[in-house]
Structures are given as C-alpha cells and as structure tokens.
Amino acid sequence: MKEVDQTYRDDDSYTLFELSSHKINISILNEGHTYIEDASIQLQIKKIEGLLVAEKVYVEPKNDINSLVNAHVPSYESMNYPEVNYTESSIVIY
Questions:
Q1: I need a surface site. Which of 17, 31, 41, 65 has the fewest CB within 10 A?
Q2: Predicted TM-score (pTM) of this structure
Q3: In this structure, is residue 29 part of a structural domain?
Q4: In 3D, which of 45, 58, 30, 57 has the Cα closest to residue 85?
C-alpha cells in the first residue's frame, strides 16, 4: 500500500492534466503589413489555492507489457510546450 502513490502517479497526472483540465490556446492575428519577428508571450497568473498548471504534456499511460517494448516518440505538443516557472506570488508561463 505504501507504493500506491508511485504506482499510479502517471495515471493520476494524465487524468488530472489531460482529461480533467481546461486547456488554453492563444492565437495572434497580425493585421499589420510587417512580419512579427523575435517576439514572445509571457503569461503571468496570480497563485491561488487549488490552481495547478501542467509543466508538460502527459501521455496516457500504457500499463501492459507492450509499453516496455515500444519506444515513446515525443509529440509536437510536448516538444514545444511552454516553460512554467513559479515565483512567490505567481505562475509564469512563457
């Protein structure tokens, strides 16, 4: 029983961050006549109790023997996932 937390960690993280979460997508429309170059977006959210931000994309765990044999190829989303940092009072995503 002591190892239940570790045994189901991947399942719990997948359920929490992929199935039960609200995802945010940001779109930018450039209505100008020049390209946007060397730009970045930083999102700063005030820390509040109960607010969790995923620090990566969680894939559905494969709990069978095939998962030990098959190599995992990272998805485009996981390779381009934003960096998440925590300050004393906020969560910063960029």
A1: 31
A2: 0.70
A3: no
A4: 45
> Do residues 52 and 93 make contact, with C-beta atoms less than 8 angstroms apart?
no
Q: Confidence band (pLDDT; 50, 70, 90) for 15?
A: very high
How many domains does the structure of the chain reveal?
1
Identify the domain containing residue 48 by its residue range.
4-24+39-93
- Determine, yes or no, domain membership for 67: yes
**Token pair 């969790």: residue:** 52
- 31 within domain boundaries: no
From the CB of residue 13, how many other CB atoms can be counted at a distance below 10 Å? Answer: 15
DSSP alpha helix (H) spans, 1-94:
4-7, 9-14, 66-69, 76-79
Residue type, 60: E
Mean per-residue pLDDT, 7-25: 93
Tell me the pLDDT tens digit for each residue of 26-81.
899 999 999 999 999 999 999 999 999 999 999 999 876 555 555 666 776 777 89
